[in-house]
Amino acid sequence: MASLTPPASTRKSRIEAALLAELSPSHLSVIDDSERHRGHGGWREGGETHYAVEVVSAIFEGKSRLARQRLVMGALKAEFDSGLHALSVSARAPGE
Amino acid sequence: MADIKSFIDNEVKSNDIVLFMKGTPDFPQCGFSGQVVQILSYLGVPFKGINVLENPELRDGIKTYSNWPTLPQLYVKGEFVGGCDIVREMFQKQELQAHLKEAGIAVNEAAAE
């Protein structure tokens, strides 16, 4: 009998879903950088620890870098709580 | 935990520039921490590096204190500036240099121009 269990979600897909839902980005790119940090602090077998995201959203207009990055990290709190270790963030408003 | 909070509070308020980092300024143990050390060294500003790897309570405590989930974390005059991405962007746009000068901290002029 075929299993009805859905495939396990990857952290990349969860990050994408959370940022799409919370920031309505006009551009979104999520890169799993974990392999590049193999052996570094925080890295672990299986990866899913180091990510780089690029977000363009009108939500960022008029907001400081700190405020923008707090919005991105806030949307990903569940991931940080479950082993996301490092996140490189580029957060821009359209036209920047 | 209250002890850690007052320890952090005291450090950021009694030092002009504090970098909470992994490893030490001479021997960073994380590329992101190392980048911020390089920028501060290039600007020629004195700073206190605090190695969070020496104390798990501090490693968690600083994240709570700043409400910021990653390291490194840079404080200038008691105020949280940001992590590696923000510090690097500010540096590239000369904003970090301006921010430090406004805070009354002398920046290596060759680096500030």
TrEMBL record, chain A:
<dbReference type="GO" id="GO:0016226">
    <property type="term" value="P:iron-sulfur cluster assembly"/>
</dbReference>
<comment type="similarity">
    <text>Belongs to the BolA/IbaG family.</text>
</comment>
<protein>
    <submittedName>
        <fullName>BolA family transcriptional regulator</fullName>
    </submittedName>
</protein>
<dbReference type="InterPro" id="IPR002634">
    <property type="entry name" value="BolA"/>
</dbReference>
<dbReference type="Pfam" id="PF01722">
    <property type="entry name" value="BolA"/>
</dbReference>
<dbReference type="InterPro" id="IPR036065">
    <property type="entry name" value="BolA-like_sf"/>
</dbReference>
TrEMBL record, chain B:
<keyword id="KW-0001">2Fe-2S</keyword>
<dbReference type="InterPro" id="IPR004480">
    <property type="entry name" value="Monothiol_GRX-rel"/>
</dbReference>
<feature type="domain" description="Glutaredoxin">
    <location>
        <begin position="17"/>
        <end position="81"/>
    </location>
</feature>
<keyword id="KW-0479">Metal-binding</keyword>
<dbReference type="InterPro" id="IPR033658">
    <property type="entry name" value="GRX_PICOT-like"/>
</dbReference>
<keyword id="KW-0408">Iron</keyword>
<dbReference type="Pfam" id="PF00462">
    <property type="entry name" value="Glutaredoxin"/>
</dbReference>
<keyword id="KW-0411">Iron-sulfur</keyword>
<dbReference type="InterPro" id="IPR002109">
    <property type="entry name" value="Glutaredoxin"/>
</dbReference>
<protein>
    <recommendedName>
        <fullName>Glutaredoxin</fullName>
    </recommendedName>
</protein>
<comment type="similarity">
    <text>Belongs to the glutaredoxin family. Monothiol subfamily.</text>
</comment>
<dbReference type="GO" id="GO:0046872">
    <property type="term" value="F:metal ion binding"/>
</dbReference>
<dbReference type="InterPro" id="IPR014434">
    <property type="entry name" value="Monothiol_GRX"/>
</dbReference>
<keyword id="KW-0676">Redox-active center</keyword>
<dbReference type="InterPro" id="IPR036249">
    <property type="entry name" value="Thioredoxin-like_sf"/>
</dbReference>
<feature type="binding site">
    <location>
        <position position="30"/>
    </location>
    <ligand>
        <name>[2Fe-2S] cluster</name>
    </ligand>
</feature>
<dbReference type="GO" id="GO:0051537">
    <property type="term" value="F:2 iron, 2 sulfur cluster binding"/>
</dbReference>
<dbReference type="GO" id="GO:0015036">
    <property type="term" value="F:disulfide oxidoreductase activity"/>
</dbReference>
